[in-house]
């Protein structure tokens, strides 16, 4: 293994499956950060098998391998679907970290969990009808699918129990002792998010008030407004009624959209410090306008508020690009500020990217690296290539995919050819204009080019 | 002559007042002024239901008092709960009895000719029982109980209250002091679906696609706030439906001014309906701590009014000094609407100012003059009187607007023109006053002022090569087309483009003192000019094409004279064989220049909207749509062209939402999955 730190991003489509090996200590320290994807799980199974076969040291018992730490950043299926205990039965897992928001007993996550329960019920109600949903709604609904419950159970119960451990619900501010890891020399792992008081930072008073109000008034209506004897109106036609229903404002959808954003912001964000190198794994943390107490804040905003003078006070060496390259999950560069409005209110969120991944002077190649684990298969604007091009100015492991594909004799038009890709013009609308510009390493196109099921980034120690 | 129905007809007395008691008070008021022998009712005269239907056929010609006696106008109670009334007002909710025209088809819902109340709640997925029409009691009831101010807690009462408000608001627009005609809706159909308790949210909106007005509620069960009970919110949203019906093509515009015009109509309608209503005036007085009552100057009244309504989303923009140049780069229709709302409020104040001088001279109608009032109007009286006049000054010009892409300038020109048509002698120089107000706001230019003040015969605006009789023109859209086709060159319609008649109707408006104005026959025509979208600035629409709407409105009198012509020319030259020189050629050059400028502006606007991420699709299912992801404009693609349409605005606190949205730029329409 040498003295380099290895980050391996498996190509799992629109999902995350990151393996990190920190050299030293007892045969290295082996971490798996997320294992999930939307859609079928074949690739995940392969990835876990590959990790077990090739990367992990032997465990205590014969025939077993050892995995020091599993981190499931948050509960969305594209991060946790692959934690099937069956696949891990030959792996001795030493630690399982989950976001403190996933602790059902955590008193400071009560309101967020109430919202999640409401949204789950509403979205399952929608999918029960069996009617076809538009792509955006389908995607939203998939986050509330019954299969997610299963994955929840794997992580909270079956997987830890199979290893005689309890999951640890982590939050920002926990010190090394509380986190309880035996790390190699020169290594520290910090949890930068979420904050312990989940309800306070990420929910927002308005959402809380609205949800309470909605639940209270719906109950009130059920009591005081007895339903009509006929559930369909007699003074308009049935088709007019159907159209009316489809054009009313759905609180189910509204709260589900809010909830998914909040769940993303409850991602465990890890800063791994190793020999003066700083590696940031951000899960699906999002950014919003400007930090404000009591508002629905983005995780980036909260982290900047809390850690900019400490853990985030200098550039990083590696970024696991958030949310598969979504524009919501990487703070914007400072130039964007002037384009938004004459005098935008938000200020500090535009400082973050430059602080962590500064654009260096011309002729200086950046040494920082980044990986985007992504595939444009489900939700049209992800990844946002404009963002990737912006990131490519700040990192060294870049490629101009247009040229590379051409050299290999691959016509880029043939890459995105599913029904959905053709219908929504994935190539023409979202990729074409950016292929001739450098982008950071992205799992989908690397796989197309090399056929390898993973991307490796090796980090040399600084000291 | 039939008196216009105004809010002065509404009575504050409880509905339990019997018919004979009503008769008595009507008789009393007559006897006070005339001192003739008391007239008693003719015994034994009753009106059967069939006879009422016969009377209904001629109801328009009958005075309101008789209509009320004979059951052709019925009292209903409306209940106001204004969520945003100033904190000084202790009694935030109040009721009022309003007379609404009876119709033979009144049914459960309530359902009438123009409205169908459907009390469906999208959160609970349930339909509440509708208010039932009781033929014997001639009232709406539920479980046998009459719905009046004693049943305020019942949802069925809300249904009736809302329906009553809307019937009255519709009358405000259709009245001869308004547009003087029955106005259509913009959708296929004539019954606007009204949803009083659509679900939880600080929302209210008019939606053309579902032919509906939806009102949501918020707050908590112990302290609920129903938007269906706020007269401001109901008036504002309803005005959107009206303007959409009167000028449906405004929906398809990428220009911020057109969206802002919609907002202005909503806001200003809410203001006028508040100021014209006795009960609401009373509430306003209380809301200002009585200061409006005591105000000694008009400006202090306006100040008080402004403060009383500050913080109310629909009336927030009345008092301001904004000019067009102050908001040159504004992309929010709400904020831009302030300029026009402010301008028309200025007009109201200047009219009120002229009323202070001489009340007798300015009497709007006989009913208002209290005996022995004297000739000096108090500032308060002048203010309210002016608000009544504003119904004509602000609403009647809507018929003079072009059918497409209305700008503030179009409206200002229409207002000035309508004033000239309605009051040609104009002893109080309102015409000049209007021009002055619009100039100060930079809505009209110096050149506009010059042209407007140029002495010119009313009919000298347009010379037509091929006259058609007005009978032929107004007979049908098809025959109107032949008239327009014969005169394409004069009307700046290109020779080789097909066009269609978007509307043809007549209107009978009234002027001061209810004097009838000459009948107006209005003809609107429209065509589409293809506009390719080439360039990366059009994002996903690069390589597609959209259309620029062109057209015009012609207003004729009974003799076929053209009273007004509002035109939106295209960018194409005439292209035909007839090639008249002189004035017509110059007209064409100016038209093509204007059309070309409009086309460039359309492309610029679109590119800006696309860059700002303000165009998107609507996310939803058969159970409803996602409000937070409703972009300001949607793109409808029929494979031939992409049509960009304004979305309904939803959230009552639109301003703060827009501000927040702007902080996050183009990404706001994405869902975090």
In short:
The complex is a heterodimer of chains A (463) and B (673). Chain A has helices at residues 42-54, 77-80, 110-128, 135-142, 146-162, 176-179, 198-203, 205-224, 238-246, 251-265, 299-307, 335-340, 352-356, 385-392, 401-407, 419-423, 426-431, 443-450, and strands spanning 5-10, 15-22, 29-37, 65-67, 69-72, 91-93, 96-99, 168-170, 187-193, 269-274, 277-281, 318-320, 369-372, 398-399, 439-442, 454-459.
Overview of the molecule:
The complex is a heterodimer of chains A (463) and B (673). The longest helix of chain A is centred in the middle third of the chain and has 20 residues, at 205-224. Chain A has 18 helices and 16 strands. By secondary structure, chain A is of the alpha/beta class. In chain A, strand 2 (15-22) and strand 3 (29-37) form a beta hairpin. A 7-stranded mixed β-sheet of chain A has the order 8-7-5-3-2-1-16. In chain B, helix 6 crosses helix 10 (333-357) and helix 12 (408-422) runs antiparallel to helix 13 (430-440). The relative contact order of chain B is 0.08. At the A-B interface, helix 4, helix 8, helix 9, helix 10 and helix 12 of A face strand 4, strand 5, strand 12, strand 19 and strand 20 of B.
Distance between the termini of chain B: 65 Å
Q: Determine the strand fraction of chain B and express it as a percent band.
A: 15-25%
Shape of chain B: globular
- Low-confidence residue ranges of chain A: none
Topology:
The complex is a heterodimer of chains A (463) and B (673).
Chain A: E1 5-10, E2 15-22, E3 29-37, H1 42-54, E4 65-67, E5 69-72, H2 77-80, E6 91-93, E7 96-99, H3 110-128, H4 135-142, H5 146-162, E8 168-170, H6 176-179, E9 187-193, H7 198-203, H8 205-224, H9 238-246, H10 251-265, E10 269-274, E11 277-281, H11 299-307, E12 318-320, H12 335-340, H13 352-356, E13 369-372, H14 385-392, E14 398-399, H15 401-407, H16 419-423, H17 426-431, E15 439-442, H18 443-450, E16 454-459
Parallel strand pairs in A: 3-5, 4-6, 5-7, 7-8, 11-12, 12-13, 13-15
Antiparallel strand pairs in A: 1-2, 1-16, 2-3, 9-10, 10-11, 14-15
Chain B: H1 19-34, H2 49-57, H3 64-69, E1 73-81, E2 93-101, E3 115-117, E4 120-121, E5 126-127, E6 132-134, E7 139-142, E8 145-146, H4 155-174, E9 192-195, E10 204-207, E11 212-215, E12 217-220, E13 223-226, H5 231-246, H6 256-275, H7 278-287, H8 291-294, H9 298-309, H10 333-357, H11 379-395, H12 408-422, H13 430-440, H14 446-453, H15 470-475, H16 477-486, H17 488-491, E14 500-507, E15 520-533, E16 544-556, E17 562-568, H18 583-611, E18 615-616, E19 620-621, E20 624-625, E21 633-637, E22 642-646, H19 654-664
Parallel strand pairs in B: 3-9, 9-11, 18-21
Antiparallel strand pairs in B: 1-2, 4-5, 6-7, 7-8, 10-11, 12-13, 14-15, 15-16, 16-17, 19-20, 21-22
Helix pairs in contact in B: 4-5, 5-6, 6-10, 10-11, 10-13, 12-13
């Amino acid at each position: 293994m040498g003295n380099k730190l290895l980050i391996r991003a498996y190509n799992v489509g629109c999902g995350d499956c990151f393996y990190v090996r920190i050299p030293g200590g007892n045969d290295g320290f082996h971490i798996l950060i997320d294992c999930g994807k939307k859609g079928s799980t074949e690739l995940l199974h392969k990835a876990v098998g590959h990790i077990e076969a090739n990367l992990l040291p032997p465990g205590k018992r014969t025939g077993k391998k050892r995995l020091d730490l599993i981190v499931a950043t948050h509960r969305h299926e594209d991060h946790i679907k692959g934690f099937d205990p069956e696949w891990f039965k030959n792996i001795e897992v030493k630690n399982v970290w989950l976001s403190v928001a996933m602790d059902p007993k955590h008193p400071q996550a009560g309101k967020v969990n109430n919202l999640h329960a409401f949204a789950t019920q509403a979205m399952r109600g929608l999918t029960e009808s069996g009617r076809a949903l538009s792509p955006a709604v389908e995607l939203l609904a998939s986050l509330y699918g019954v299969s997610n419950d299963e994955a929840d159970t794997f992580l909270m119960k079956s997987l830890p129990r199979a290893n005689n451990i309890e999951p640890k619900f982590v939050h920002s501010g926990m010190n090394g002792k509380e986190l309880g890891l035996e790390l190699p020399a020169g290594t520290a792992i910090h949890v930068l998010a979420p904050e312990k008081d989940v309800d306070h930072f990420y929910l927002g008073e308005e959402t809380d008030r609205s949800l309470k109000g909605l639940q209270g008034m719906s109950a009130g209506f059920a009591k005081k407004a007895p339903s009509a004897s006929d559930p369909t109106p007699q003074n308009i036609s049935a088709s007019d009624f159907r159209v009316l229903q489809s054009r009313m404002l759905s609180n189910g959808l509204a709260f589900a959209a809010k909830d998914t954003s909040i769940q993303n912001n409850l991602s465990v964000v890890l800063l791994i410090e190793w020999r003066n190198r700083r590696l940031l794994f951000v899960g699906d943390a999002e950014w919003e306008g400007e930090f404000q107490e009591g508002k629905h804040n983005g995780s980036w905003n909260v982290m900047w508020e809390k850690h900019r003078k400490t853990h985030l006070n200098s550039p990083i060496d590696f970024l696991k690009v958030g949310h598969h390259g979504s524009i919501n999950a990487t703070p914007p560069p400072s130039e964007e500020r002037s384009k938004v409005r004459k005098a935008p209110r938000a200020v500090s969120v535009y400082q973050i990217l430059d602080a962590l991944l500064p654009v260096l002077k011309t002729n200086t190649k950046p040494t920082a690296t980044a990986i985007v684990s992504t595939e444009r298969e489900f939700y049209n604007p992800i990844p946002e290539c404009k963002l990737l091009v912006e990131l490519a100015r700040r990192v060294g492991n870049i490629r101009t995919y247009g040229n590379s594909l051409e050299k290999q004799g691959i016509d880029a038009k043939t890459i995105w050819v599913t029904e959905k890709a053709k219908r929504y013009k994935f190539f023409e609308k979202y990729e074409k204009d950016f292929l001739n510009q450098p982008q950071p390493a992205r799992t989908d196109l690397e796989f197309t080019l090399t056929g390898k099921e993973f991307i490796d980034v090796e980090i040399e120690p600084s000291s | 002559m039939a008196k216009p129905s105004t809010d002065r007809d509404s009575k504050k007395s409880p509905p339990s007042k019997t018919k004979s008691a009503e008769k008595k008070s009507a008789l009393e008021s007559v006897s006070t002024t005339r001192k003739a022998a008391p007239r008693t009712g003719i015994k034994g005269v009753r009106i059967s239901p069939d006879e009422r239907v016969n009377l209904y056929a001629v109801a328009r010609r009958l005075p309101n008092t008789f209509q009320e006696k004979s059951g052709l106008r019925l009292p209903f109670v409306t209940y106001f709960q204004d969520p945003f009334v100033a904190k000084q007002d202790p009694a935030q909710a109040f009721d009022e009895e309003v007379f609404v025209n009876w119709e033979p088809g009144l049914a459960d819902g309530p359902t009438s000719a123009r409205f169908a109340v459907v009390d469906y709640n999208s959160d609970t997925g349930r339909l509440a029982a509708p208010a039932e029409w009781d033929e014997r009691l001639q009232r709406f009831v539920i479980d046998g109980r009459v719905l009046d101010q004693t049943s305020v807690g019942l949802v069925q009462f809300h249904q009736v209250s809302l329906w009553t408000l809307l019937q009255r608001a519709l009358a405000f627009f259709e009245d001869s002091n308004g547009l003087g005609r029955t106005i259509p809706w913009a959708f296929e159909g004539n019954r606007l679906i009204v949803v009083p308790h659509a679900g939880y949210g600080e929302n209210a909106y008019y939606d053309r696609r579902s032919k509906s007005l939806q009102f949501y509620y918020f707050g908590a069960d112990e302290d609920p706030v129903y938007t269906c009970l706020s007269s401001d919110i109901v008036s504002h949203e309803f005005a959107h439906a009206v303007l959409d019906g009167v000028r449906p093509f405004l929906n398809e515009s990428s220009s911020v001014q057109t969206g802002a015009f919609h907002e202005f109509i909503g806001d200003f309608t809410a203001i006028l309906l508040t100021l014209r209503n006795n009960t609401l005036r009373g509430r306003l007085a209380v809301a200002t701590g009585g200061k409006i009552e005591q105000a000694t100057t008009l400006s202090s009244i306006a100040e008080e009014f402004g403060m009383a309504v500050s913080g109310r989303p629909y009336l927030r923009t009345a008092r301001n000094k904004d000019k067009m140049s102050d908001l040159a780069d504004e992309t929010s229709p709400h904020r831009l609407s302030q300029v026009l709302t402010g301008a028309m409020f200025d007009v109201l104040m200047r009219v009120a100012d002229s009323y202070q001088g001489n009340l007798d001279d300015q009497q709007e109608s006989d009913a208002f003059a209290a005996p022995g009032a004297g000739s000096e109007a108090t500032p308060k009286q002048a203010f309210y009187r002016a608000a009544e006049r504003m119904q004509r000054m602000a609403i009647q010009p809507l018929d003079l607007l072009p059918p497409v892409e209305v700008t503030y300038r179009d409206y200002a020109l229409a207002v000035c023109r309508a004033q000239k048509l309605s009051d040609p002698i104009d002893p109080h120089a309102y015409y000049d006053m209007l021009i002055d107000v619009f100039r100060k706001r930079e809505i009209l230019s110096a050149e506009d002022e010059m042209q407007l003040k140029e002495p010119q015969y009313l009919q000298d605006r347009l010379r037509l090569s091929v006259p058609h009789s007005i009978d032929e023109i107004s007979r049908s859209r098809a025959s109107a087309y032949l008239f327009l086709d014969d005169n394409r060159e004069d009307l700046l319609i290109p020779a080789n483009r097909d066009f269609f008649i978007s509307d043809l109707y007549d209107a009978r408006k009234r002027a001061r003192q209810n004097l009838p104005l000459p009948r107006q026959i209005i003809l609107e025509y429209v065509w589409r000019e293809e506009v390719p979208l080439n360039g990366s600035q059009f994002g996903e629409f690069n390589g597609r094409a959209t259309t620029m709407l062109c057209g015009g409105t012609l207003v004729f009198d009974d003799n076929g004279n053209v009273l007004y012509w509002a035109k939106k020319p295209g960018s194409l030259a005439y292209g035909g064989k007839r090639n008249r020189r002189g004035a017509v050629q110059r007209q064409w050059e100016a038209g093509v220049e204007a059309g070309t400028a409009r086309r460039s502006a359309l492309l610029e606007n679109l590119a800006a909207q696309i860059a700002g991420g303000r165009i998107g699709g609507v996310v939803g299912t058969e159970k409803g749509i996602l409000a937070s992801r409703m972009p300001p404009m949607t793109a409808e693609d029929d494979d031939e062209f992409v049509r960009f349409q304004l979305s309904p605005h939803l959230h009552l606190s639109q301003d703060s939402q827009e501000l927040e949205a702007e902080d996050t730029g183009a990404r706001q329409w994405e869902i975090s999955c």
